[in-house]
Write a structure and sequence with these properties.
Number of helices: 13
Radius of gyration: 18 Å
Order of helices and strands: EHEHEHEHEHHEHEHEHHHHH
Helix content: 40-55%
CATH superfamily: Aldolase class I
Number of domains: 1
Strand order of the largest sheet: 1-2-3-4-5-6-7-8
Structural class: alpha/beta
Mean pLDDT: 95
Largest sheet: 8 strands, parallel, barrel
Low-confidence stretches: none
CATH topology: TIM Barrel
Shape: globular
Distance between the termini: 25 Å
CATH class: Alpha Beta
Length: 296
Amino acid sequence: MRWLWTALITPFEDGNGIDNPIDYIALERLLHMQIDARVDGVLLLGTTWERPTLLESEEIELIKFSINILKGKTKIMVNAGTYSTLDTVNTITYLDDIDGIDSYLVVNPYYNKPTQTGLKKHFITAAKQTQRDVVIYNIVGRTWVNLETNTLIEVIQEAPNVVWVKEASGNLEQMKEVISATSDDFIVLSGDDGLSYDLIKNGGDGVISVASNCEPKVMKRFIDSCLARDEKASETNAELQEFFSKLFMQTNPLPAKTYLAEKGIIGENFRLPICPMDPKERGEFLGFVSTYKLPQ
């Protein structure tokens, strides 16, 4: 199985505040964009979803709303990971009663900065609470800890339902090491759009993408061509690099939501502490959007 997954954003109403409502009309529009593009899966409650700004009641409502639209049309992953093993376990236990979820994303515990032993115990404990697939999310930039390859292998050996990793360490050599050290059945997905081509070229299996919020059909064609070893994939990768870079010129999901708002798909609304792009960067980004030609 090799996929393009979209780490979906959450659209809000009424400008920027601390409790502005979720825009369910825009969310339905976004979900159908993903279905129409035939993406292989959608990630709910990820960082791009602005999960830390949501109430628990909103999270459940959003999950059920999204599943109702996506079920049977694409795979569904829900982020269950937190910096607390107990909270992660409790979240998985609750989500296990919701029909339609295919897998859980579990991130390195942020802020705590656990040791490799702590990381290992955290992931194994979480995985043993469910029969569903578990995807480890290794992202150094938001957690300040790196899941080393040897630790990942130990987790896989003790928790056989850990069958994927979302690798966002930013270290291509480590990604290649993970691919080499795991079986062909183990799925290695990039957490960085800009590294998708190189990861797949070296035996990886796809990406959990931010860019596919904005242009899911373009990203689907691109990832499919990478996986098919199409000669044009390298050229397309080069053409997309500036687009990928601009989507991270300020904190994700600021540029992605600004892009979607400029296209009239959502409102340019956030919840604090996430807020609109700074004026200078926003002007630069929108200038780029107005002139950039996406690869066909």
